[in-house]
Design brief:
The complex is a heterodimer of chains A (about 120) and B (about 220). Chain A is mainly beta and about 120 residues long. Chain A is built from 2 helices and 9 strands; from the N terminus they run βαβαβββββββ. The mean pLDDT of chain A is about 95. Chain B has a single domain, classed as Rossmann fold (3-Layer(aba) Sandwich), CATH 3.40.50.10320. Chain B is built from 8 helices and 7 strands. Chain B has a 7-stranded mixed β-sheet, sandwiched between helices. In chain B, helix 1 links the parallel strand 1 and strand 2. In chain B, helix 3 packs across helix 4. The chains are: A mainly beta (about 120), B alpha/beta (about 220). The interface between A and B is medium-sized, with 32 and 30 residues.
Chain lengths: ~120, ~220
Amino acid sequence: MKPIEINKVQEKLENYVNKDVYVHLETTNGAYASHVNKNAYNVGAYIRNAKVTFKQAKIVGSENVYRVGLKMEMGWIYAEGLTDYTMHEDTKLLLAGHDREGRLMVSLQISETPFNY
Amino acid sequence: MEKHVVVIYPHPDDESFGAAGTIAQFRTQGVSVTYLCGTLGEMGRNMGNPPFANRETLPEIRKQELIEACKVLDMELSMLGYRDKTLEYEDRQEVAMHLKSILDEMEPSLVITHYPGYAVHPDHNALGAAAIEAVKLMEPGKRPTVWAQAFSNNFKEALGQPDINNDISDQIDKKIEAIFCHDSQAGGVISQRNKTENNKIDLKAEAQKQMGQEQFYTWDFNS
């Protein structure tokens, strides 16, 4: 992946507007968070291949950390802390936020075809 | 002497961090070893540092790392095809029957797995429980010995001292070589254990310090 270029990602997002798309949305601090630090909590959530349609999409942010909001007919999809992006197999937009050691903390991925499951 | 050892863990790299020294010792004795690896670690958050994997490329990268590590340890590999972080939601009995069908065919003399409830990661606990259930389902005369590995912070208070304490210092180089086959994971895992950032420590020296011994509890099927 490479650092997010906001204009390019905005353009990619707009390619998925008003289409049936599959979304992978995830956040995690790992299964060992409370094992290595008693004061930490293990927190994570993911949804893979949620089939949705959004009518607006916007990336916002500064200093290399970004947020994305997708407006659907009945609700929103949101991700914060995104730092990097890539086009996977040319058609799937992958956005992710990594910590300073390269660990994934959050990801938002959009595709017109399902992600492997 | 053991005849055939089967290692059952859920993730690519569990075998290297958990039991590589023990596996290497068995191989030097000429004992065959097979790794039944539950998942491909698809949901891992370590992507290399700097990251070279992403959520979609990670499974294939970890699969190749796993194949390399098994080559280094000179053991057979069978991938079970479950998905990372989901093992505890599978039907326990179904997973146990799946494992039993493999064990019935392989007839190992020893099974190495995680100690259910004391192995930190939910996948470790779930697959360990299924592995022990699989052996329980076998006729008592045909059951292999089971070594269960615990490493939760409270494991010694709860379970007492492990009865198997393998000094693996003679195989530490092999173990480190196996660990570093898992290029996407090794740095992140070692530095997290050390609670430092992984570009600030000598990872190999740290691994040597952490990993001179591998401990297991012999499972008691009579209690």
